[in-house]
């Protein structure tokens, strides 16, 4: 077998392995951001390898079709998808600020929309001249532009993977009858549950009824500084008013965040490995699922409906939370990208352009 054929065979095999890893990960668990990355890379490498193998034998149709699909999708995303995304973020951001409280968290969609609106112009302003200059100013500008571009692409890629993994996870169904349903708290108003928290509780109660009332519901939420009583107590009262058997509802009242919701609720289980369903808002499902995996819980997360205008800001906030949960990895990745940009500038730019005048 000729050397090019060996390389193509390796590329095809690698694509098949990555695609298989993505499919297995999706079927077995789904609580991994890497799953859609494996699926996308595997499908891409497999299509590339097969297309090139056919092209080597004189048949260009598979490669041409794959190229048209990829290039067409990219062009459609740039020409149509990007402007529509900016408009949607601006509109939903303005709507959530008009209908909900004016906070930084609720303003994230609007901030992201404005940022994406001016991103191409900003990167253009940082771009070096068409003729690379090997003097200090030219090299610094080249390194800054390359670093900024790679950082933007990095966060765009991670956000796309996070969004894809979230959507794939929402298609999963509860496979094992749960012994416990954990409902995550979301703040009180005047000591009573908010509409958002009520939706979570309704979702948890629906899961309990789906399994004929056998799972115990843990209403998990501590007491904030501006709350007259713990969220867990208010949540328990709401569930009982909605018809839940008081004997099947337990209040967890110490937690202050999602991780503590899960940790303290798990401590109430007779068996930490018991199958659990976590009920939360739709935008919060995947991050809650990631945390259950980190904590080693045998859990499946389900979501309650969320108003469309609230969803973009909430998803961006959840993505920021995932980045914070993996801050060391993120900082290391960004440092590597910046170092690569500097190294590329020091090695390549002097060979591309004239030296200092």
From TrEMBL:
The keyword Transmembrane helix applies. Keywords: Membrane, Transmembrane, Transmembrane helix. It comes from the Bacteria. This is YdcF family protein. GO terms for biological process: Gram-negative-bacterium-type cell wall biogenesis; peptidoglycan metabolic process. CDD domains: YdcF-like. GO terms for cellular component: plasma membrane. InterPro entries: Cell_Envelope_Assoc, DUF218, Rossmann-like_a/b/a_fold. Gene3D superfamilies: HUPs. The chain crosses the membrane at residues 6-27, 36-55, 61-91, 103-127, 147-169, 329-352. Residues 180-321 form the DUF218 domain.
């Amino acid at each position: 077998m000729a050397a090019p054929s060996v390389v193509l065979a390796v590329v095809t095999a690698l694509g098949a392995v990555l695609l298989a890893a993505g499919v297995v990960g999706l079927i077995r668990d789904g609580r991994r951001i890497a799953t859609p990355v494996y699926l996308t890379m595997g499908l891409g490498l497999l299509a590339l390898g097969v297309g090139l193998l056919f092209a080597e034998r004189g048949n260009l149709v598979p490669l041409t079709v794959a190229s048209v699909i990829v290039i067409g999708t990219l062009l459609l995303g740039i020409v149509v998808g990007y402007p529509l995304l900016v408009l949607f973020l601006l509109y939903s951001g303005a709507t959530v600020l008009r209908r909900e409280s004016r906070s930084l968290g609720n303003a994230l969609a609007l901030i992201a929309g404005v940022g994406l609106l001016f991103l191409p112009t900003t990167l253009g302003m940082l771009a070096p001249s068409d003729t690379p200059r090997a003097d200090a100013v030219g090299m610094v500008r080249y390194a800054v532009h390359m670093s900024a571009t790679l950082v933007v692409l990095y966060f765009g890629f991670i956000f796309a993977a996070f969004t894809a993994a979230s959507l794939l996870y929402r298609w999963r169904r509860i496979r094992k009858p749960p012994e416990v349903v954990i409902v995550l708290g979301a703040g009180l108003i005047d000591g009573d549950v908010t509409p958002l928290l009520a939706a979570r509780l309704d979702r948890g109660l629906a899961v309990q009824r789906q399994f004929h009332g056998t799972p115990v519901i843990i209403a998990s939420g501590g007491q904030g500084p501006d709350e007259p009583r713990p969220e867990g107590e208010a949540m328990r009262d709401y569930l009982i008013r909605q018809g839940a058997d008081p004997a099947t509802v337990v209040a967890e009242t110490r937690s202050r965040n999602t991780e503590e919701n899960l940790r303290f609720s798990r401590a109430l289980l007779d068996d930490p490995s018991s199958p659990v369903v976590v009920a939360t808002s739709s935008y919060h499902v995947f991050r809650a699922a990631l945390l259950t995996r980190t904590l080693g819980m045998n859990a499946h997360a389900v979501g309650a409906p969320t108003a469309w205008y609230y969803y973009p800001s909430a998803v961006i906030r959840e993505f920021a939370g995932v980045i914070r949960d993996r801050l060391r990895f993120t900082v290391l990745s960004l440092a590597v990208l910046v170092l690569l940009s500097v190294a590329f500038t020091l090695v390549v730019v002097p060979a591309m352009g004239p030296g200092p005048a």
